[in-house]
Amino acid sequence: MNRNWSKKEHKQLLRLVDKYGFAWLRISKELDRTSDSCRMRYRNSIGETNAQNKLDNLDYKSLKTNMPVIGLFDVETLPIEAYAWSLYKVDIYQEQIKKPTGLLSWAGKFLNQPDVYSDILTPEEAVDRNEERITKSCWEFLSKCDIVVGHNLIDFDRKTINTYILKYGLPPLHYKMVDTLKLVRANVRLDSNKMKFVNDYLGIRTKIENEGFPLWRACSDGDPEALATMLEYNEGDIFALEDLYYKVRPYFRYFNAALYNTIEERQCPVCGCMELDKQDKFYMTPAGKWYSYRCTECGCLSRGKENLLSKHKRKLLLNPIS
User: Is the Cβ–Cβ distance between 83 and 98 less than 8 Å?
Assistant: First the structure.
């Protein structure tokens, strides 16, 4: 990036910031930090009001990312309260349930956005197990997402929130899912796949510590201080999840970012970056041969759509019989 930037190039850069949002915003700030002389030329050629101030004062909420709207999401639930005669090999029947499990809180964040959105039961709602209000606020958040990311999202968080969406008569939601738990399980072998262990192993932000079950019991009793602590804990999971997302996203195979914009250039299917390195090694299948590319931003490998084999060659290909 260290080179002389002309007035024309700076103007083009600002247009790209307007058009492509965060990806070009990061690039533009990096360019402005290359040297003091570059910064001075930047201000003199474009004008500080129209250039540097424009970059620094952009409204992050209104930036167009040309990416699918990706939501990071996590829920916490209340425990079942039930009668039992033993601590071992207990079977709980419906008649023994004093209070069923319930949605306690949720937290979410749009990727590359600063704000965290969350909601938790009031003390009265916690005692009554009345989740209607926070179910509706959660529905509003998820309804804005094209893709939802979570750790154990498919088997727990999605099914949990769908339970209350159904209970309170809200319409079903459609979004693609990225489950970091399943992705970690499928691609690496760790001693534990829990998010705290994975994040500690990777040296990134991890979950906030809490006192364990006594916190959930206090929330179930409607303790305001415990509810405030629980919400902080739930929100902390979102930041840990965001760091994990960036670590494992080169392994995603669930969506194609280029489908969500009108850019007619080759893009990384995971992060939308247009800076791709063509690999010397081709991608081969029984049906043909394709160029392969590595994203310079996230490291994801992808392949082109044009089959490099001639039609005649493809007709001559044989498949082994299993």
Answer: yes
